Amino acid sequence: MTVYNWRVYCNTEGGYIETWSPEVPTVCPNNNIHEIDPLKSVIIGEVKEVVPVDSVTGKVRSHSSSKLPGLTTNFTGRGDDPSDVDDVGNGQRIYYKHELGDSTEATIYVDFNTIANTTSINEGYESHSNCQNEDCGSVEIVSRATQISMDGTNTDYKLYAGIMVIPAIDSTGEVEILSDLSEHDGGLVYMPDVQQTDGSYLSPVAFWNAEWNSVTKKFENITPAPAGDGRYNIFIYEYVFHRFANDWPLMGNCSGCLLSTEDEDLWGHGMRLKITMKTGLPDHAWEFKLGLSMSRLRTA
Questions:
Q1: Are strands 218-224 and 42-48 parallel, antiparallel or unpaired?
Q2: Residues 264, 120: contact at Cβ < 8 Å?
Q3: pLDDT tier for residue 262 given thresholds of 50, 70 and 90
Q4: What is the average pLDDT value for the chain, to the nearest integer?
Q5: Complete DSSP assignment for 37-77
Q6: Starting at the edge strand that comes first in sequence, how are the strands of the sheet with 42-48 ordered?
């Protein structure tokens, strides 16, 4: 479509007026009850909408992708090694095998190092075999927990809602942090922006700021954000941010069952993948595997 820049003469106002329109104006742009002189309407400019087309077929080109700019698509069946903050892909396998006599409930934790490797998660592909009755699995994204003591006096930390550590004004807190917050696994959890229904992004509510030193592999300048306008939070228990699958029923055999979505969410540092597998009775041997579709700054 082409949009034209028109110069029209308004009889009512006694002067020329400019306006943009794909069609010739029939009324004054300033007031639609004013009359114009159609013989004096001229085009003084235009803008053409350029639609990309294939050079061979002439068909319109389009590309649908949930991947964030600058990241690379990554399919993985395991996490990163949490003991090495720079590791990519050498951590826990996303795999469970139940043998006769094992506990009817088991939990697997999978970590991804994202503090220096921007990562987002898209969808999953699960496989299972010999599943029966009430076999099922849940997949959640939870927070890493920080160790604390409630025996502190006049500290800079206090407990909020029984789950989060927030700044204590004027050192009136009772919480003592036992973990080393400067370590990558000390308990700081990065809170990504939250996308709204209109597509815009809203800053999270977070009570701490920190800077990551890529040389020392430690956090520096950990400072309070009492107004909630920080980037990190501290949790003393596992907080469930998102339940990707809730008691997903497993029956018989399936290879690569797609858990599909068009969305992609950033993975904040300090967040963990928690997988809970449940075996129905009577007891029986069975297996489960999960692959993830992700986007990452570094894939190796």
A1: unpaired
A2: yes
A3: low
A4: 90
A5: -GGG-EEEEEEEPPPPB-TTT-PBP-----PPTT-EEEEES
A6: 15-21, 2-10, 42-48
Tokens of 30: 């300033």
CA distances to 89, 142, 236, 273, 295 from 256, rounded to whole Å, are 20, 25, 36, 19, 19
What six digits make up the tokens of 112? 């991804």
Looking at the fold, whether 155 and 215 belong to one and the same domain comes out as yes
Give the integer Cα–Cα distance in Å for 235 and 146: 6
Domain count, the chain: 3
Tell me how far apart the alpha carbons of residues 104 and 281 are, in angstroms, rounded to a whole number: 8
270-300 pLDDT, tens digit each: 999 999 999 999 999 999 999 999 999 999 9
Mean pLDDT of 24-50: 86
Residue 83 tokens read as 């003991």
Cα–Cα–Cα angle for 194, 200, 203, rounded to 5 degrees: 40
- Asked whether residue 29 is assigned to any structural domain, the reply reads yes
Full residue range of the structural domain in which residue 39 is found: 2-48
The per-residue pLDDT for range 88-97, each reduced to its tens digit, is 999 999 999 9
Contact 232, 144 (CB under 8 A): no
Whether residue 282 has a cis bond before it, omega within 30° of 0 = yes
Query: Do 13 and 31 sit in the same domain of this protein?
Result: yes
Specify whether 247 is located in the same domain as 281: yes
